Amino acid sequence: MKKRSPTRPTPQVSLDRNIEQLRQQLARLTPFLSKGKAHAASTLEGFDLEAERMISEVFGETSEMLEAYEHAQLGEAASLVNWPEEAQEGGAQASEQESLHLRRRVLESCIAELEASRAAVAKKRDRIPNLVIGPQVAEHMTPEIRSVPLDATLKEAGRRMQEWKIGSLLVADARNYVGVITDTDLAREVVARGLDPSTTTVKVCMRKPPTTIEGSRPIIEAVRLMKEKATRHLAVTQDGTIIGVISVSNVLRYYSGVV
């Protein structure tokens, strides 16, 4: 049985994904940097909030990078980071355009630091051939955990799947997730065994225990486990606690993006 957690841990994302997200955010800054091109203050404010969120998630809420970005919005970031003197031209309070360039420099520094970390990981991988890197299960899972109680009827389970547009539900007792029931299980059991969905509980038809995989494992391992266990859904764990679900749909979305 896997323990249920009232507060779901935030899964760690790979360096590749962090770098790509920050690069995309940097690309969104380009229109603001275009000279003579007006932009709404509310739009720039939204950009800053998203940039702060990304930096905070990657480097921490008390990191120098986040502090530098916050000061960049005031045109003061150059004094916090060891950048070339041209970044400090125009006095302590830079013009709006200079402030935008300071934002760019902070984002570029974030990316450079992550790329250095990625290079270090690659070097370590060369020394340790079995070290697993690459797309991880936690990066592509569905973090929302949908479940039904052990004594719920098959009809209630089907209603919830239809409402949430999903193909499986974890089954929970008072403390743990003890099983899983899928749309396929519902169809097979109700039709093949002639069960009454209004009175039969999910306990009768669920698969137990849930098939699990650690979120840090490579996504290809999830594919292998699905084939081995003949299932389309896996509960994703972190340190033994279920934090999400990965399905065939999640896997297909990932591979379609790769192609």
Plain-language structure description:
- Helices cover 50% and strands 13% of the residues.
- It is α/β, with parallel strands linked by helices and 259 residues long.
- The strands form two sheets. Strands 1-4-3-2 form a four-stranded mixed beta sheet. A three-stranded mixed beta sheet has the order 5-6-7.
- A hairpin with a 2-residue loop joins β6 and β7 (241-247).
- α1 packs antiparallel against α5.
- The longest helix is centred in the middle third of the chain and has 32 residues, at 96-127.
- The radius of gyration is 24 Å and the shape is elongated.
The first-to-last residue Cα distance is: 37 Å
Largest sheet: 4 strands, mixed
Order of helices and strands: EHHHHHHEHEEHHEHEEH
The general outline is elongated
Global Rg: 24 Å
Please tally the helical runs, counting DSSP H or I stretches of 4 or more residues: 11
- Cross-sheet strand order for the largest sheet: 1-4-3-2
Write down how many β-strands occur, each being a DSSP E stretch of 2 or more residues. 7
> How much of the residues is beta strand, in percent?
5-15%
Outline the low-pLDDT stretches: 1-13, 77-94
